[in-house]
Amino acid sequence: MKVIMNDFASKYDSIIQDPLLRNYYGEKDFYNVGYWLLDTLNQQEACENLMEKLLEFIPEKKGTILDVACGLGATTSHLLKYYSPVDIVGINISTKQLERSRVNAPGCNFILMDAAQLEFEDDLFDNIISVEAAFHFDTRERFLQEAWRVLKPGGNLVLSDIIFESTQWVGDWLVPQKNNVKDTEEYKDVYVKSGFQQVELVDKTNQTWGEYCRHVMLWLREKFLAGKLDEPTFHEYMTVFDGLLNSSVRHYLLVSAKKV
């Protein structure tokens, strides 16, 4: 299992640090599709919007919070608007990403850890957040069981997640087949079976996945027309994002659940 996780981390490192995508993200360290409003100017703002939308699910932002699959630490850094560094823990399976996270969110505690095997004691955290990552985990159900275990009674789990109909465009290595569900009811049932109550699902596919793909494709076209992107690279990336836009993403969900 450790070999598999290291392989996943290595592959994902190459994606998240792709120079062209880093340029699209404004050389900032977010890496998610974001939440697009009518007045959203760029990807950075969209990513900050997504964090704010998720944090709206936590009325009282106090106590401790665990950032699961914290990426390069931009999500963790955003949490510093509401939480003290000593109350924030971020975990990831990539040592390279954790190194960057420590730069982006100084004072926070970052640990190399698998989301499906949380090495924390029971009833430890007041809140858990995970941005666009649960569909990667092996498995989502194991993560939810672990999240329920380490949350304190009354604690909140908030996350954004994606339901795929198939993994044709994203690949089985990115989304384990065991994480596929047929609809939102089956998806919600995984939370209930893991012990969570007050499970709320908000479908924001158009404002997230759809708008992200469209904005990236527009940006690529502008780069190409300005002579800053060669034709083979332009067509390669356009094919990828056109495929993603028209792929089998069924639902992009904002999720809130509570351990009662």
From TrEMBL:
Keywords: Methyltransferase, Transferase
CDD domains on file: AdoMet_MTases (cd02440)
GO biological process: methylation
InterPro entries for this protein: Erg6_SMT_methyltransf (IPR050447), Methyltransf_11 (IPR013216), SAM-dependent_MTases_sf (IPR029063)
Residues of the Methyltransferase type domain: 66-159
A Pfam family: Methyltransf_11
Molecular function terms from GO: S-adenosylmethionine-dependent methyltransferase activity
PANTHER family, per database record: GERANYL DIPHOSPHATE 2-C-METHYLTRANSFERASE, ZGC:194242
Name of the protein this chain belongs to: Ubiqui/menaqui biosynthesis C-methylase UbiE
Organism: Nostoc flagelliforme CCNUN1
